[in-house]
Amino acid sequence: MTELRWQLADDGGGQGALFDDVLERHVGSGEFRGMEFLHVNAKRIINELPQSSGLPFRYTINAYRGCSHACIFCFARPTHEYLGLNAGEDFERKIVVKVNAVERLRAELVPARWAGDPIAMGTNTDPYQRCEGKYRLTRGIVEVLGEAANPFSILTKSTLILRDLDVLIEAAARTDVHTSFSIGTLDEEVWRSSEPGTPHPRRRVEAVAKLNAAGIPCGVLVAPVLPGISDRPDQLEAVVQACVEAGATSISPIVLHLRPGVREQFMPWLERAHPELLDEYRGLYPRSYAPRVVQDRVSSIVARLVAKHGGVAPTPSRERQTPRDATPKPTGSAQLSLMPPVR
Ligand code: SF4
Fold first, then answer.
1. Pairing of the two strands 19-27 and 36-42
2. Alpha helices in 275-327 (DSSP H)
3. What is residue 313's predicted lDDT score, i.e. its pLDDT?
4. What angle do CA 168, 333, 240 make, to 5 degrees?
5. In terms of Cα–Cα distance, which of 135, 191, 133, 151 is closest to 318?
6. CA atoms within a 13 Å half-sphere pointing along the CA-CB vector of 17
7. Cα–ligand 1 centroid distance for 336 (angstroms)
8. 306, 315, 323, 343 - which has most CB atoms within 10 Å?
9. Is 70 left (phi over 0), alpha (psi -120 to 50) or beta?
10. From CA 157, how far away is CA 169, in angstroms rounded?
11. Pocket test for ligand 1, best of 65, 77, 129, 262 (most atoms within 8 A of CB)
């Protein structure tokens, strides 16, 4: 493990380092076979973003680095390289676990040092990825934030969030709690191919309904929309209609963007899964973001569909917290894992 470049790791946009040495390395078994969990002690757990980030939140918490959801377009993949790990299989199978996250948070929320600003989770990797089922760090964080009446938001693709409905409800009784699901498509084939480790999108829609029914506001990022793969009007209508019916408090689309480091993972996948689209994507993505005309087209379709089905119009505010799916740059888009190296 000493080969891991911890001293170079940056958990928060250049604020210096983040972990002590790896405490333990756990090889996964059973449902976690083929995975490794690298236990570290975070030096701090609340991450402050630089003012220049342009994101609608300033403070984040990320208890994990790497994500077993293994989305091929994941924006967070390159952040694994700061650790001397790779953005491909290592990102999906070698998960850094900040085992002291809850205890650090308690220490950092001391009123003398903390002003009570809103904190966003899910801004880099998924706080409810599979291993949260055994580490329960996100649950502990929600409990501590609730006890402190500190406002927070969560973006996830995982129905595991429903396990914590009890503590979310308790927290929401004391402070502002917002949740968002990322549901890029209901197309079964696209989902299986591009997000192989995530819960079925229909189960996610059900989770949106359950959260809202429980009084926890939950919006949806239709993200990322993949040009030529999941952007047909009928595909968009399926997901928008389902989310409106689930009571989503907001529905906003985000067209795929391919930053350096993500592109190297995505394009080989595209060549295998949709070779006929290779040239089109090369033309669409000379840079990280799809052309404005493509983004405007998708936004327009989704806005029309939301109105058609009686949903709540997209808002640029905190519910659209952009996280892993989104980066608020050019047009306020991003894609899960959404942002620059943060978690
Ligand atoms: S996009 Fe989100 S859910 Fe998918 S691998 Fe990245 S962090 Fe995990």
1. antiparallel
2. 278-284, 292-309
3. 65
4. 65
5. 151
6. 12
7. 6
8. 323
9. left
10. 19
11. 129
Is the CB of residue 69 below 6 angstroms from any atom belonging to ligand 1?
yes
Tokens of 249: 């408090």
Query: According to the model, what pLDDT value does residue 19 have?
Result: 66
101, 45 contact by CB (below 8 A): yes
Q: Which CATH superfamily is domain 6-309 in?
A: Aldolase class I (3.20.20.70)
Domain boundaries, the chain: 6-309
From the number of C-beta atoms within 10 Å of its C-beta (0-12, 13-18, 19+), residue 119 rates as buried
* Rounded Cα–Cα distance for residues 111 and 4 (Å): 35
Give the tens place of pLDDT for each residue, 11-48: 444 444 666 677 888 998 899 999 999 999 999 999 99
Spatial CB neighbours of 45, under 8 Å, sequence gap ≥ 6: 61, 63, 98, 100, 101, 104, 105, 108
pTM of the model: 0.89
* Closest residue CA from atom 7 of ligand 1: 125
Strands 36-42 and 94-98: parallel
Contact 145, 152 (CB under 8 A): yes
